[in-house]
Amino acid sequence: IKDNFKNIIIFIFILLLFFIGQQVYSFFNNQKILKLSILYEEAKNTNSENQFLKDMKNISEDKGFYSYMAKLEIINSKVKNKNYNESYEDYVILLNDSNLNNLYKTSISINASYNLLNQIDNTKILNLLSYVDQDIDSFAGYYLEILYLLYNSENDKKNIQITYDQIMNNENIHPSIKNRVKKINDFEKYK
Questions:
Q1: Counting beta carbons within 10 angstroms of the beta carbon of residue 180, is it exposed (0 to 12), middle (13 to 18) or buried (19 or more)?
Q2: H-run or E-run covering 176
């Protein structure tokens, strides 16, 4: 009975140490996230572009949510400064991150395509669109709208009509997207 009692005490002690270790890890992890969120907000509120980029670069080297946000801020700064090819390369690096799930990759891909549309070669836009998860219905309209705009810029009449029909006949696509595409289609048809 003494041996069993001793084993039970050791087991409870180890379990208690494990629980305390979990709590300490959780506390320090939460503190790190809090610190990054404060740094991120301070960087967003700075008036110096150089300081902003320096702070975002530091945050982006960490792992986690704010790292991705900082990387997107750096890319947006490059887009704003018309460094489109650098932006494209950074988007591709970000999209190839294996830690990002398909929802985030799809969202980033759609955003990148809109940001760089008519600024870089259409094959690069198509490459960005290759990261879109076709199983996520909520992005189908944006995906098809970008394709429609690409085909329109290339004056590819056949694919313009096919994509236009896909957009208009898909009940899951938001009416605002349908209206935008319809206006462009009507304008192109009657100009």
A1: middle
A2: helix 175-190
CA 106 – CA 101 distance, rounded (Å): 9
Residue 191: CB atoms within 10 Å? 5
Q: How far apart are the first and last CA of the chain?
A: 95
Contacts of 163-168 spanning 24+ positions with Cβ under 8 A: 167/141
Interval 122-174: pLDDT, tens: 999 999 999 999 889 899 999 999 999 999 999 999 999 999 999 999 998 99
CB distance 176 to 184 below 8 Å: no
Percent helix / strand / coil, the chain, rounded to 5: 80, 0, 20
Six-digit token string for 94: 């970000």
Contact 71, 60 (CB under 8 A): yes
Exposed / middle / buried, residue 155 (Cβ in 10 Å: 0-12, 13-18, 19+): exposed
Q: Are 87 and 75 in contact (CB under 8 A)?
A: yes
pTM above 0.85, yes or no: no
